[in-house]
Amino acid sequence: MNIEDVENLASLARIELDQDEKKQILKDMEGILAYVRQIEEVKVDDVKNDSDLYNVWREDKVEA
To answer: What pTM does this model have?
Structure first.
């Protein structure tokens, strides 16, 4: 991500940012993206789904 990306996002959001605001948003976005990359590394292949989900209101019916 770079300043041009921030400028494009600001344009799409129709907001005006000064240079300091752009730099701060870029820093914040880089932090967010680093956190997302960290979350993506979590291995969930062996996680068992313990929830027993069902509809308490009616029986599910397959309709064509």
So the answer is: 0.61
